[in-house]
Amino acid sequence: MAVINENYLLIKSNYIFAEIDQRVEKYQNDNPDADIIRMGIGDVTRPLPQAVIEKFTEAVKEMGEAETFQGYGPYRGYDFLIDEIIKNDFNPLGIELSNEEIFVSDGAKCDTGNIQEIFDVTSTVAVTDPVYPVYVESNVMAGRIGPMGDDGRYDKLVYLPCTEENGFVPEIPKIPVDLIYLCYPNNPTGTVLTKEQLAKWVEYARENNSIILFDAAYEAYIQEDDIPRSIYEIEGAREVAIEFRSFSKNAGFTGTRCAYTVVPQELMGYDSEGNPHSINNLWYRRQTSKFNGVSYPIQVAASAVYSPKGQEEIRESVDYYMKNASIIRKSLKDFGLSIYGGVNSPYIWIKTPEGMDSWQFFDFLLNEAHIVGTPGVGFGPSGEGYLRLTAFNTLENTKKAMDRISKLSL
Amino acid sequence: MAVINENYLLIKSNYIFAEIDQRVEKYQNDNPDADIIRMGIGDVTRPLPQAVIEKFTEAVKEMGEAETFQGYGPYRGYDFLIDEIIKNDFNPLGIELSNEEIFVSDGAKCDTGNIQEIFDVTSTVAVTDPVYPVYVESNVMAGRIGPMGDDGRYDKLVYLPCTEENGFVPEIPKIPVDLIYLCYPNNPTGTVLTKEQLAKWVEYARENNSIILFDAAYEAYIQEDDIPRSIYEIEGAREVAIEFRSFSKNAGFTGTRCAYTVVPQELMGYDSEGNPHSINNLWYRRQTSKFNGVSYPIQVAASAVYSPKGQEEIRESVDYYMKNASIIRKSLKDFGLSIYGGVNSPYIWIKTPEGMDSWQFFDFLLNEAHIVGTPGVGFGPSGEGYLRLTAFNTLENTKKAMDRISKLSL
Q1: Distance of CA A104 to CAs A93, A139, B30, Å?
Q2: Most distant CA pair in chain A: distance in Å?
Q3: Contacts of A8 by beta carbon, 8 Å cutoff, 6+ apart
Q4: Same domain for A239 and A90?
Q5: Are residues B77 and B110 in the same domain?
Q6: Domain stop point among B307, B328, B349
Q7: Same domain, yes or no: B291 and B319
Q8: Are residues B291 and B324 in the same domain?
């Protein structure tokens, strides 16, 4: 008899974005004339940079000609892309990486979801709370942290609350944990850690032989000095951290799909007898058995992000979204809401007003202003009482949405 | 302390194709003038169809314009592709499917590797032997079947030998197994099952509440009548089978990446109390948490495979490769070798001559004829004494390779 992985039954809700989709679809069906502005899902709206389109188009043409056609590519990705990644994303920060330390993939979601596979099922897992649901759900599915109690908290998960009270800076756990997911600039709160704050986590991981799974998908949005763009800016991080990067949010690849993961050669995990094993080897093993690389034309397209023209275009896009963020911040502040993030990140984290809970405020914004946000509680128990808005919209829609909010009364 | 998933240490060898790459690279370095012909990896050589290139190019253009730009797509894939899949790949066989039963992905390797996640870790697994290594390795990694004994067999894996002796038709197990991987037309042996033979497996699965994981990646190569193109041609299969399809081998998408998986709504797995659960729901749950869809331009490109021009072009490609297969079959027969497959499949399965084992014959062909095959033993214990050649090469190289073999002496 085919028995299912019952850990799947421990996941209480639908994937949060699917749930939002359903509510919005129902509202739109009931109110066909409502001009709904989506500021929920962190999906970009600006087209791919022209530098990318040009190279992408050329690479598609190559696939149509026998002399230049490409079949299966290298397991880790093409060197023409990896070379650019290292040269542009890391060397300017003073970080050296070898090509074997980069794994090109079709998305940071896939990588952050799959990475837990290479660790023991009894590993203790810590996440900042609120948190991107993929880290939690992938570990629930693996049987590492379920079931969820009546308080909406998973039994074996170590929550690191990030709230108004602690300025959204997670406290170092008092107990040893094995795997720590950190996402900075943070999704969903839009807040950041300074180098000094992140260094404490590297120190903790080194003391406890823990591994930090550092999601830097929003790195391009950092505006302020002293905010680390890569965890490898922190001394000693190569021995304790995996870093996830993506072309989704800087270059608009959410629908094109390309990302990469950095696994330094020094990074070790341990078997039950305490012998060290290369995490890079394990991840390579995982990828060679269960993945077949990213489309050749897409890797070419991603490499064009690093051309001078590509770099200029992605800067323009980031500036565009950050201008939206600034408009949202100002409007919501003027309206009297307490808000966080939106300075080094495209996300604005709003404290819900008038004692509303997250889904009440979600429904309020949907019904009264036809704006779709993301309920904070969908990101974890400490997200209750908050709601996330994204700056990933057109300037026009952003202004329109803020105008609608300014006319609401609470 | 970050403890690794020790099941990874149970995998004895490198992924077979990586091992071949290493041997070939070494040989080429030692013999820089050798004109090596690769007939090992099942990678296509012909460019993408022009019908595909045209639509692919248009879709890239759309990604560069704000009005037509696409961000995150639907979790299961775009309906414009799924509609074509159902209309062209299934309806003509008398099979009805709903759009919710199709999951578009970036590769059948990923899907066949990941599907085991949704089943219990104690499930018994049966595979034909020899077999595509991904099925086995993904289950070893999950802790379902290791460790491997000294005889080169995994303790808890149920092997279904397919050899000269049984005409490459796997025998129905005498014991109940939970999950059965069947790949037809078969990789690596190139052999097929008739409808009657496959129907016995469906009957077995229905009797035992087993699930068949049916890999039909080579469906396009079927030439003979009475060979099922889909397992759903067999009555009752919707309740017991998942089918994997790919654009890699029919339309040359190995380096472009697109595939799909069919999970019928009737298909149930069971929890430990015997309650049924929809496998479609579980797989949807898995995909929404750990996957983010296939690139929009690639889904457009895949949909063009179904245009009249696309269909004509892929038929030409299949014919081209099958002509190679026929040349290989004739040459090897004339040379005096016992061969199988190559009639409804691009793979030719050769019995090694003169008592050589698989790797000896691999090295013999590499050293003496500069031809790269795939050692049968890399696909499982019953593959020992065989070697696989593929027809995925140019006609010119295929002829050259066969000419070299005809001049060898054993």
Answers
A1: 20, 22, 30
A2: 66
A3: A141, B118, B282, B285, B286
A4: yes
A5: yes
A6: B307
A7: no
A8: no
What percentage of chain A has pLDDT greater than the value 70? 99
- Pair (A94, A190) in one structural domain: yes
DSSP-assigned beta bridge partners for residue A369? none
Q: Provide the domain count of chain B.
A: 2
Its ipTM equals 0.96
B29 among annotated binding-site residues = no
In a domain, A1, yes or no: no
Nearest to A270 among B4, B123, B289 (CB): B4
Residue B1 lies in a domain: no
- CATH number for the domain spanning A137: value is 3.40.640.10
Tell me, yes or no, whether B280 and B147 share the same domain.
yes
Structure tokens at B114: 């990941």
pLDDT in tens, B366-409: 999 999 999 999 999 999 999 999 999 999 999 999 999 999 98
From residue B142, alpha-carbon distances to A120, A386, B139 in Å are 10, 38, 5
Q: Do A292 and B110 touch (CB under 8 A)?
A: yes
Tell me whether residue A351 is in a domain. yes
Give buried/exposed letters for B365-390 (b at 16+ CB in 10 A, else e).
Answer: bbeebbbbbbbbbbbbbbbbbbbbbb
Q: Give B112's DSSP letter.
A: H
Express each pLDDT in B124-147 by its tens digit.
999 999 999 999 999 999 999 989
Contact A113 B46 (CB under 8 A): no
The conformational region for residue A77 under phi > 0 = left, psi -120 to 50 = alpha, else beta, is left
Band (A390; pLDDT cuts 50, 70, 90): very high
Burial class (CB in 10 A: 0-12, 13-18, 19+), A273: exposed
Q: Kindly report the number of other CB atoms within 10 A of residue A155's CB atom.
A: 10
Q: Select from A307, A341, A369 the last residue of a domain.
A: A307
Q: How far is the alpha carbon of A165 from chain B, nearest alpha carbon, in Å?
A: 30
CATH of the domain at B23: 3.90.1150.10
* Cβ neighbourhood burial of A32 (10 Å; 0-12, 13-18, 19+): exposed
State residue B13's pLDDT score. Answer: 62
Pair A144, A125: CB distance under 8 Å: yes
Q: Are A24 and A36 in contact (CB under 8 A)?
A: yes
Give me the count of residues in chain A: 410
In a shared domain, residues A113 and A127: yes
Residue-range definition of the domain harbouring residue B251: 53-307
Q: Is B124 near chain A, with CB under 8 Å?
A: no
Residues A295 and A395 in one domain: no
For residue A405 the two structure tokens come to: 């909010």
Residue A209 has its nearest CB partner, among B2, B269, B289, at B2
Asked whether A125 and A178 are in contact (CB, 8 A), the reply is yes
For A131-158, write each residue's pLDDT tens digit.
999 999 999 999 999 899 888 899 899 9
Residue B59 lies inside a defined structural domain of this protein: yes
- Calculate mean pLDDT across residues A260-278: 97
